[in-house]
C-alpha cells in the first residue's frame, strides 16, 4: 500500500474523480436549466375543473397545471381550513394558471384535491396568446367581421384572419420603425441644428428659414405616414372573436391584440413539436412584453453580443500592447514588478467597483466633457454624459484587461529567444520581428486570453447596472439613421434580464420559467462566442505551427 501511495496513482485517481464530479455537476446544472426553461414552450394540456368547497361554493376553473405539491393535513388545519372526514396524512394541491387577467383577480390559484369534483380535458378549449393581459382560455363561439358573425369552420376562419392581422401588424411595425422613425429622428436633428446655430450666434434669418422649410416638409410627410398607420390600425381592429370563459360569460376580443391561437388538447405530438419550435423561435426573435414576463428577448441577445464584441475590439489591442511592452521593452526593475503586481491584483477587484469607476470616470467625466465640447445644443439632456453601451464596453474592457495581459505575456514567454535573435540577425528590426514573427506565434495565447475575457464579460451584470444596461431599451444601438451605430444608447442584457424577471417581476410564478429559459439562452450565447473564438485560435495555431519548428 505504501508503495502504491508513493507511485502517485492515488492522486491521479483523485484528480480524475474530481474532474468527473465537476463535469457531471456542470452538465447536470445545464440539463436542469434547459429542461425547466425549454419545457415552458411546450403546449401544455388545458383542463376544466369543477370545484366544490366545504362551504358549498361551486365554480369552474379553466387553466393549465403549473405546479403541484404535497401538503400535510396538519398544515392545512393550521391554516384554518375545515378538513372534516379527511383521513389521509398528506393531500395534493395544484397550482393552476388561469390567465384571463382582466376578468380574474389572480393569474394563479391553488386547488386542493378534496375540492375538485371533476376534471375534464375538452378538445375545443382554445388558448389565445395576446399582446397584453396574458393568455386567454375559453371556448371559441364566434368569429366576427365587424358586427357580423362569419360562417364556416371557426378554427379555419380564426387562423386565416390571424394571419391577416399579423401581416398588418408587421406593416405597422415596419412603418413606425422605418419611415416614421426616420422622420422623427430628422426632426430632432433639425431642432438640435437650430439650437446649435443660436448658441454659436450664427442663426441668420436665411438659415432659420431653410430649417423651417425642411421641418414643414418633414411634418407634411409625417402626416401622410400617420394616416397610413391609422388606416392599418383600423384594418387590424376589424375582426373580433367571441369566447366563453370559465365564468360562463361570452367575451368579445379584438384580433388586433391576439398573437396566436392553439387548441393544445386537440394537438398530436408532431403538431406540439412544431408549435414548440415556433415558440422558441418567437422567444429568440421577439421583443419583451408585459414588464418582460412575456414575449421574446431579442433586444437582450443583441445588446449582449454587441457589447461583448465591442469590448473585445477595445480590450484586445490594449492588452496585447501592454503585454508586449512589459515583456519585450520594459526593463527588469522594481517598477516593472510593481506594474505586474498591480495588473494581477486588478483581476481580484470586485466587479461593482469597476462599475462605480466607469460611472464616475467614463460617464460623468469623459462623457460630460464630450457633451460640453461637441453636443452643447443637446444640454441639459446628455448624449454621451449618460450610461450607454460604449461606457459599458470600456468598463468591461478594463475589468478583463488583466486576463488578456497575463495570457498574452505567458504566450510571449514561451517563444524561444533564439527565434528573435535569428530574425534580428537576418536584418529585421525589432518592430518587424514582433509584427511578423513574435505576435503570430503568440496569437493562440492572445485568443485564449480573449476567450477568458469574453466568458467573464458576457456574464457580468453588477457593473452594467451603473454604466448602461436598462430594463427595456426602446431602440437598438444599430438602426437605419446616420451614423447607424449609436454607441451612446442604453441597451438590454441577458444577465440583467434574468435579474429583472426573477426578482423585480410583479408575477413571480409566471416569470419563473422565463428565468430558466433566459439563463439557458445566456449560457448558449456565451458558449457560441467562446466556440467562435476557439475556432479562430485553432486556425491560428495551425497556421503558425511551422514557426514553432
UniProtKB/TrEMBL annotation:
Coiled coil regions, renumbered to chain: 208-235
Keyword Transport: yes
Biological processes, Gene Ontology terms: phosphate ion transmembrane transport
Keyword Transport found: yes
Keywords linked to the UniProt accession: Cell membrane, Coiled coil, Membrane, Transmembrane, Transmembrane helix, Transport
Subcellular location: Cell inner membrane; Cell membrane
PANTHER family documented for this protein: PHOSPHATE TRANSPORT SYSTEM PERMEASE PROTEIN PSTA, PHOSPHATE TRANSPORT SYSTEM PERMEASE PROTEIN PSTA-RELATED
Protein name, as recorded: Phosphate transport system permease protein PstA
Organism this protein belongs to: Oceanisphaera profunda
Amino acid at each position: 500500500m505504501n508503495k502504491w501511495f508513493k507511485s502517485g496513482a492515488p492522486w491521479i485517481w483523485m484528480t480524475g474523480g474530481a474532474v468527473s464530479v465537476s463535469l457531471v455537476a456542470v452538465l447536470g446544472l445545464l440539463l436542469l436549466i434547459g429542461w425547466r426553461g425549454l419545457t415552458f414552450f411546450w403546449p401544455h394540456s388545458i383542463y376544466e375543473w369543477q370545484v366544490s368547497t366545504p362551504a358549498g361554493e361551486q365554480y369552474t376553473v379553466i387553466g393549465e397545471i403549473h405546479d403541484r405539491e404535497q401538503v400535510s393535513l396538519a398544515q392545512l388545519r393550521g391554516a384554518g381550513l375545515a378538513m372534516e372526514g379527511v383521513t389521509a396524512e398528506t393531500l395534493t394541491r395544484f397550482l393552476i394558471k388561469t390567465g384571463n387577467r382582466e376578468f380574474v383577480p389572480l393569474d394563479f390559484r391553488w386547488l386542493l384535491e378534496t375540492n375538485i369534483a371533476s376534471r375534464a380535458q375538452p378538445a375545443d378549449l382554445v388558448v389565445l396568446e395576446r399582446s397584453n393581459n396574458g393568455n386567454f382560455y375559453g371556448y371559441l363561439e364566434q368569429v366576427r367581421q365587424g358586427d357580423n358573425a362569419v360562417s364556416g369552420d371557426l378554427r379555419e376562419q380564426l387562423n386565416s384572419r390571424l394571419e391577416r392581422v399579423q401581416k398588418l401588424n408587421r406593416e405597422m411595425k415596419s412603418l413606425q420603425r422605418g419611415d416614421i422613425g426616420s422622420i422623427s429622428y430628422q426632426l430632432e436633428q433639425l431642432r438640435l441644428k437650430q439650437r446649435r446655430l443660436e448658441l454659436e450666434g450664427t442663426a441668420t434669418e436665411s438659415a432659420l428659414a431653410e430649417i423651417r422649410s425642411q421641418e414643414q416638409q418633414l411634418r407634411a410627410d409625417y402626416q401622410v405616414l400617420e394616416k397610413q398607420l391609422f388606416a392599418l390600425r383600423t384594418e387590424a381592429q376589424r375582426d373580433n372573436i367571441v369566447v366563453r370563459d370559465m365564468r360562463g360569460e361570452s367575451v368579445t376580443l379584438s384580433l388586433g391584440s391576439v398573437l396566436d391561437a392553439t387548441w393544445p388538447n386537440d394537438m398530436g405530438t408532431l403538431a406540439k413539436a412544431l408549435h414548440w419550435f415556433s415558440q422558441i423561435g418567437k422567444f429568440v426573435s421577439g421583443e419583451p412584453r408585459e414588464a418582460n414576463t412575456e414575449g421574446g428577448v431579442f433586444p437582450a441577445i443583441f445588446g449582449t453580443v454587441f457589447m461583448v464584441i465591442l469590448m473585445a475590439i477595445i480590450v484586445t489591442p490594449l492588452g496585447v500592447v501592454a503585454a508586449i511592452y512589459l515583456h519585450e521593452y520594459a526593463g527588469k526593475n522594481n517598477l516593472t514588478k510593481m506594474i505586474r503586481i498591480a495588473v494581477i491584483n486588478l483581476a481580484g477587484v470586485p466587479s461593482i467597483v469597476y462599475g462605480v469607476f466607469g460611472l464616475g470616470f467614463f460617464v460623468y467625466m469623459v462623457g460630460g466633457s464630450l457633451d460640453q465640447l461637441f453636443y452643447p445644443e443637446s444640454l441639459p439632456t446628455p448624449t454621451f454624459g449618460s450610461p450607454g453601451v460604449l461606457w459599458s464596453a470600456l468598463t468591461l474592457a478594463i475589468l478583463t484587461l488583466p486576463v488578456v495581459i497575463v495570457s498574452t505575456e505567458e504566450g510571449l514567454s514561451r517563444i524561444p529567444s533564439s527565434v528573435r535573435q535569428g530574425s534580428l540577425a537576418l536584418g529585421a528590426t525589432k518592430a518587424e520581428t514582433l509584427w511578423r514573427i513574435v505576435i503570430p506565434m503568440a496569437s493562440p495565447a492572445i485568443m485564449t486570453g480573449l476567450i477568458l475575457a469574453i466568458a467573464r464579460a458576457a456574464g457580468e451584470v453588477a457593473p452594467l447596472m451603473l454604466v448602461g444596461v436598462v430594463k427595456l431599451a426602446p431602440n437598438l444601438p444599430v438602426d437605419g439613421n446616420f451614423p447607424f451605430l449609436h454607441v451612446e444608447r442604453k441597451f438590454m442584457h441577458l444577465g440583467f434580464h434574468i435579474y429583472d424577471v426573477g426578482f423585480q417581476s410583479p408575477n413571480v410564478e409566471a416569470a419563473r420559467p422565463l428565468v430558466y429559459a433566459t439563463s439557458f439562452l445566456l449560457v448558449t450565447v456565451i458558449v457560441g462566442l467562446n466556440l467562435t473564438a476557439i475556432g479562430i485560435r485553432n486556425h491560428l495555431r495551425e497556421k503558425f505551427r511551422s514557426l514553432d519548428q
